[in-house]
Amino acid sequence: MDYAINEMEQEVLNATRELAQKKLKPLRAEMDAKEQFSNQMLEEYRKSGMMGLWLPEEYGGLGGGITCLAMAFEELSRVCAGLALTPGTTALGAIPMFLAATKEQRERWCPDVASGKKLWAFALTEPEAGSDATALKTTALKDGDFYVVNGTKHFISTGKEADFYTVAVNTNPSRGARGISLLVIEKGTPGFSFGKKEEKMGIRTNPTYELIFENVRVPKENLLGSEGRGLLYLQETLDYSRPGVAAQAVGIAQGALDETIPYLRTRKQFGQPIITFQALGHKIAELAAKTEAGRALVYSLTHRMDTEYLPAVKAALAEGTSVHDELKKLKGQRWTKYSAEAKLFCSNVAMEVADECVTLCGGVAYMRDFPLEKYMRDAKITQIYEGTVHIQKNEIITALIKEYAAKGDEE
Ligand SMILES: Cc1cc2nc3c(=O)[nH]c(=O)nc-3n(C[C@H](O)[C@H](O)[C@H](O)COP(=O)(O)OP(=O)(O)OC[C@H]3O[C@@H](n4cnc5c(N)ncnc54)[C@H](O)[C@@H]3O)c2cc1C
């Protein structure tokens, strides 16, 4: 279906589709089996401008918005959700920077994000702080012109490969959650090391690492925004990034259908193609309808987001202010509920579609030679990272209670 995308978005869609088919597809099975990051694919992303789709042209990006990013993520994930995470997690790590950064910080970091010269990652989760981000224990205490960081993060995507980490820390532990701040920490800073590499069910080509900070001295110029406002920036980041996970989930669902339908058309049992058995055809129809519903939800949301995000970026560049401040001036929409709805719905669709497609194809789909079992393994993560399905439901019900309470007050 045509989602009224503009010329630039259409070009991104076509280019990503081609890149995914020509470059990603031949690599995915081998890299998944070896559980290896692909430098070859990183080079392709760099050459194609994929890393900076959502960044302004002033920094070497394409000047696209959240829709461009989501579309690219859908198309890449349609072929391999793991290799799609190279641009995906760099965006996740760099979005909080881009939203909260000063003009000087943007100029320092954005060109290398856009060119793909430097990869970024997002480090919030800790062993004792998963769904409850406010429980984080990593501290960053001021010492002259530096913060001294101590603590451990775990389950960090693109760990070790990334050059910069946007790390959630507590700069004032006595204030609890109000002490949470965001710091950019560069790989190679003394005291910053990598611990365990996780062995995973899915998205195996993307390395997931533990990060260890032992008396890491981080220049105060690497603080994003103001001290103590970290949770606010994190929420804003997740509002913009969760539709990306939803798009990834739509891509996984579509990719599973792409593998399944041709097989059902050619596989014969009882003397006829198995797709002609109505039970199977009807199931495919249901799965296709749910996938399209997910896609419609994602792009209607990202298009609305872009009507605020793109003007805020333009104003921040013109005024030398932060994108976060410009978004605040616009007094726009809170996206939290809609982002959570998109992620909840699409991640459940991805899991259902991948699971059902394996059942529909039968034994062949259980085997590693056929790509479907990988879609099933990859789909699961969309229900977990950037907040589990339960956390998305918590976001939605919290927003609904507020909405209805406000309506009650008006009556
Ligand atoms: C492969 C992978 C990659 C990841 N990448 C990153 C990354 O790059 N950066 C990063 O910071 N993090 C990352 N994560 C961490 C991820 O965001 C967390 O795993 C996720 O938020 C859940 O936290 P948890 O695993 O500690 O589960 P827990 O918080 O321990 O939750 C366990 C269960 O309890 C439920 N639960 C918890 N609290 C509530 C509640 N209030 N109401 C209802 N149910 C609740 C959860 O939904 C879940 O079912 C990654 C995780 C994985 C698996």
TrEMBL record:
Cofactor: FAD
Biological process, per Gene Ontology: branched-chain amino acid catabolic process
Keyword Oxidoreductase: yes
GO terms, molecular function: acyl-CoA dehydrogenase activity; flavin adenine dinucleotide binding
Pathway per the UniProt entry: Amino-acid degradation; L-valine degradation
Record domain Acyl-CoA oxidase/dehydrogenase middle: where: 121-216
Record keywords: Branched-chain amino acid catabolism, FAD, Flavoprotein, Oxidoreductase
Ranges of residues in domain Acyl-CoA dehydrogenase/oxidase N-terminal: 7-117
Entry's family note: Belongs to the acyl-CoA dehydrogenase family.
Name of the protein described by the UniProt record: Acyl-CoA dehydrogenase
Organism (species): Candidatus Avelusimicrobium gallicola
